[in-house]
Design goal:
Glutaredoxin
């Protein structure tokens, strides 16, 4: 599965060395509090974005943990920065699910918003056009391990793993 494994710093003006220069498409989505957050609400502010889904058991865990640590550092430095986590699984990630997810990371929702309330295609287009980051819809099942398909020695490892989980 491919989706944004990066954080994105967004705002007007450039005082740092940049590695991107993209306009963010206008959006207005639903927060974990079932309120609206739009790009216009973030205008003139610095904000960091990522793309997550709450039932992810791989990259989302360290990404959200790192966002939580970033939030702590932002507070320590007394910086006025917003954090925005876009769900790539809006069908599953309802505002209530996002609220519970935020609580599990002790997110301070005064400057960290978790967004949903759109079709997958909408967030896919935003990710690609605004952040140059392709993403795919989360799998219906859960992928838990990868094996080399060209190494015959891995067949025994697969069998051992299947015995363990069966």
């Amino acid at each position: 599965m491919v989706f944004a494994f990066m954080l994105f710093l967004t705002a007007c003006g450039e005082k740092i060395e940049t590695n991107m220069s993209r306009d963010v498409q206008a959006f207005e989505f639903t927060t974990q509090d079932n309120e609206s957050l739009a790009l216009k609400d973030l205008e003139g502010k610095w904000w960091v974005a990522d793309f997550i889904f709450t039932n992810c058991t791989t990259v989302c865990l360290p990404m959200t943990t790192n966002m939580s640590k970033l939030q702590d550092k932002i507070k320590q430095e007394n910086l006025d920065v917003q954090l925005v986590s876009f769900s790539v699984d809006p069908e599953y990630d309802t505002p209530k699910v996002l609220e519970e997810y935020a609580e599990s990371y002790q997110a301070d929702l005064s400057n960290w918003s978790f967004l949903t309330g759109y079709e997958f295609q909408t967030i896919k287009e935003l990710s690609i056009k605004s952040f140059q980051s392709p993403l795919e819809k989360p799998p219906e099942g859960e992928v838990i391990k990868r094996y080399s398909g060209t190494d015959p020695k891995k067949l025994d490892v697969i069998i051992d793993d299947l015995k363990e989980v069966s």
